[in-house]
Description:
This protein is α/β, with parallel strands linked by helices. It is built from 31 helices and 18 strands.
Amino acid sequence: MIYESDTLKVQRHDGGIAELTFDLHGESVNKFNQATVDDLKAALSALEAEQGISGLLVTSAKPVFIVGADITEFTRMFKAGKETIIEFAGHNSANLNRLEQLPFPSVAVINGYALGGGFELCLACDFRVMSTAARVGLPETKLGIVPGWGGTVRLPRIIGVDEALMWIAGGAEQRADAALKVGAVDALGAPEELRKVAMVTLQRAIDGKLDWRGRRDAKRSPLPLNDTEAMMAFFTGKALIAQQAGRNYPAPVAAATAVEQARGMGLEDALAVEANTFAELAQTDVAQALVGVFLSDQLLAKKAKGWSRQADKPVQRAAVLGAGIMGGGIAYQSAFSGIPIKMKDIAQAGIDLGLKEANKLLSKRVARGRMSPEKMGETLNRIEPTLSYDGFGQIDIVVEAVVENSKVKQAVLAETEKQVAADTVLASNTSTISITRLAEALERPENFCGMHFFNPVHAMPLVEVIRGAKTSDATVGRTVAYATAMGKKAVVVQDCPGFLVNRVLFPYFDGFSKLLRDGADFQAVDKVMERWGWPMGPAYLLDVVGIDTGVHAGAVMAEGFPDRMRNDFKTAPEIMFEAGRLGQKNGLGFYEYPSDKKGRPVKTATAVAYELLAGHVAERREFTPEQIVARMMVPMATELARCLEEGIVGTPAEADLALLYGLGFPPFRGGVFRWLDAIGMENFAAMARACEGLGKSYELTEGMQAKLANNETWYG
Ligand SMILES: NC(=O)c1ccc[n+]([C@@H]2O[C@H](COP(=O)([O-])OP(=O)(O)OC[C@H]3O[C@@H](n4cnc5c(N)ncnc54)[C@H](O)[C@@H]3O)[C@@H](O)[C@H]2O)c1
């Protein structure tokens, strides 16, 4: 043994082969936390001092190789100032440089995920062999930063600028065949063969058959591009990256710029450019938000695991009632995730529609080469369409997705309860009706909860799991486990009108209605909110959701929270609804939707909506972008704070993720609470004051006032 610690060890094998093995004790994965970085430094000293070593294997004792830096250490470090951040990058960069300069060849044995810093370590080795089951990549730009341990320097010098820019700016995980094709790795092996492949590679290098010194020189040298080649590569590359990333995500372009700035430099200078870019980006609100989202995601996954442990049994067979838009989507998602599902409707036409929808989604996957026709057949076979309750006695969970009518739902649920086993979980996909109230029709209300999917089910990551007054922990547990098995993010919330997501969406829509009432142009509002980061503005969103659905749900919310959600004027969505404009579904809403050649709806503004509104709204008036953002976002934020204060949702992190995954809240802002932390409660209070007189939704909640008075943040 040459070196051993709680994070890694270096052994000496026959023939002078050394093996550096990462194995972070007490963790399921390897990551570069501070201890690992320190230990690597010591291990390299031991290796440098060891006599008679001819070659080095770099391996992992875990199913993953190294998943990257320890992101839990980022938040504090990013706030510590530029010098500290550069120092952080410098420590491990120095390690990797020393690894690269050892007086014998090295081979990284990539047995599983090698991401971020984990992959940068591999790039510092002379050769890389990769398991066919592994993934590599540099996902840093997804966190709003750039690789900080030589990734932007070594990767373009190994695989060429064009590919490297795409890898770094896109941040995607790469499969083994793709990595081999571009030369990011030198050989592949099936998991059980990988070590043999690595040994052969290393031996050939030791024997002088592979030019490992030449490889090192290439990585330490300027990029081999003349000015014209460089201009072409960076000019077109950066334009494409900027277009794909969008104006709110600066890291991808910054990464490309760092590669460009360092193109004529040797390793040390190029690393300094990279470290500087890393430090500058790390200090931005965008990086704070994206790192925050990553950490919140981990918290959510942990909570889901905790809930799943409370499930008394896993879901092996499911059923869905209603084969409409949502029922069909739920059946598809369950079958796609490997869980057989009965799809029951009262009408054959409904079933045909549900099956057609599943078929369409699967055919798309097959056409894109993302699924084999056999797999498609297997998936479809997992959906069992039915008009009867036959076999419901063996079902672990039934998701009700019939029409949004509480009498119909109560009748259907009570009828179903008689057909299922005593411990079957019943869940309703209602978007507005109180779970506690629906439970009144049931004999076993403890087995009942809400399971609120979002439309379209296959694309929207969120499922709200709603606890009624009598819902048991085991019921919540089984439902969360099912949502997780379907690849969804489950957020557990308490029952109230609108639950969490719709409860905060409708005050936002009210903000929109009041803006229009006071003379704003709906297109201008859409434009401002889209620039703010929303995937679509409120008018467009209402059209997509369905104006009838919006008006109906709005009425439920007004009944539930009259003090702040009941309007004393006719709202713009009501005006559209009364004119028979239901949104995208009938091609007429705030906008109109004629079809293009491929049959896709094209959003088109016409005079009709303006004419309809004319008699009900004030004369057209300009609002500044700041006024529009304040009028839209203050009511959403105050309502979300209220939900947290009332215990509807457990933590700011869960609340923020629910909006990201359920509504498409802009990820670069991290969620409402992260946004409040970024702008500060003082500024938020000023925004709210500027909206004085617009109603209770524009007043700070008690919790907000306390944060303001105590100068506290939501994330602490
Ligand atoms: N569409 C959305 O955007 C959306 C989003 C989230 C939640 N939801 C909720 O999901 C539920 C379903 O909505 P949808 O948009 O899929 O409606 P839909 O009208 O498309 O489908 C409802 C289906 O239920 C069937 N049905 C009616 N009574 C039934 C019964 N007794 N047994 C079995 N099937 C019966 C109908 O035949 C129809 O096929 C509603 O509660 C709705 O609020 C909808």
